[in-house]
Specification:
By secondary structure, the chain is mainly β. The protein folds into 2 domains: about 100 residues, Nucleic acid-binding proteins (OB fold (Dihydrolipoamide Acetyltransferase, E2P)); about 110 residues, no CATH class. It is about 5% helix and about 50% strand. It contains 1 helix and 13 strands, in the order αβββββββββββββ. Strands 1, 2, 3, 4, 5, 6, 7, 8, 9, 10, 11, 12 and 13 form a 13-stranded mixed sheet that branches. The radius of gyration is 17 Å and the shape is elongated.
């Protein structure tokens, strides 16, 4: 799975197998379990997703919204945008973006935070970092609040609860947006599901992201 997809799941990021993401590395709303896998079947208002830990049945809500990734560009990364940025540490210790995902307003706050996508200390030097947060507003002392270019070098400050990351942005960086789609769920599709845990332990959802075949 490429880094463009992982930036939502880790938010999206990377943001897991069935996919409970550890609380220390991810800030999911209470009662939300992120599930990533392949659609096995869709029967009525129930979708079965084959995750790495086995099949997961999820009840589809009446107000279900399905999102897909669509190409975008840096002009759509503006002040107050909620984004997920995948970055790689450079020799000087700075972070360099490899992918930026723009989230719709209704998904603002999902997966907020900054953390290594591979927490293994032995591999940390080569690990990508996932940062989900809001593009810093004009009051930020670190940037002008959007993608700013100074002496040919662009930077982006992403603010999240408890901190901020300033990330260099190359001109060729991949930018995608999560947009609503009328496409129907079908077997074989890779999906990322924001599942709500019910009192009986079952799952339901009103948000599903298509992340490729």
């Amino acid at each position: 799975m490429n880094t463009a997809v992982l930036s939502f799941v880790g938010s999206v990021v990377v943001f897991s197998t069935v996919a409970t993401v550890p609380a220390s590395s991810q800030s999911w709303p209470a009662g939300i379990t992120p599930v990533r896998g392949v659609v096995a079947s869709v029967s009525g208002d129930v979708v079965t997703v084959n995750s790495q830990t086995g099949p997961v049945k999820i009840q589809l809500g009446k107000r279900l919204k399905v999102y897909k990734r669509t190409p975008s560009d840096l002009t759509h990364v503006t002040s107050e945008s909620f984004v997920g940025v995948t970055s790689v540490k450079q020799p000087d210790g700075s972070e360099r973006a490899t992918n930026i995902n723009i989230f719709p307003e209704e998904l603002r706050g999902i997966g907020e935070g900054s953390y290594l996508m591979n927490p293994n200390p032995a591999q940390s030097a080569n690990s990508s970092r996932m940062t989900n947060g809001t593009v810093a507003g004009p009051a930020s002392r670190m940037t002008n609040g959007t993608v700013s270019t100074r002496s040919g070098a662009s930077t982006l400050s992403v603010q999240y609860s408890g901190g901020m990351q300033t990330i260099s942005v190359p001109r060729e960086v991949s930018v995608t947006a999560l947009t609503p789609t009328t496409d129907k769920l079908k077997p074989g599709e890779n999906v990322f599901v924001l599942a709500k845990t019910q009192q009986d332990g079952s799952f339901s959802t009103t948000s599903i992201v298509l992340i490729g075949p």
